[in-house]
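INFO batch 0412 | record 1 of 1 | parsing
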Amino acid sequence: GVQTCALPILRVVNASNGGTVRTFPEMPAWIHSVDVTPGGEVLVAGAADGTVRTWNAVTGQPLADPEPVAR
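INFO prediction complete | emitting tokens
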């Protein structure tokens, strides 16, 4: 599963035991949405300031620079 906390940080956790699998870099603002591609390869997160970030869900490497999205 994917979990957020009191800080704008995103963690992937093991659904069976709750252990952290991977922590992703801090977002610039509170995280409002998270999605994973159907195959589980890409993690996408949207922040309150309109920034969207994408990562390789397996390696944790960013796939692109943070993208501001027009509201």
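INFO post-check: The chain has a mean pLDDT of 82.
INFO record closed
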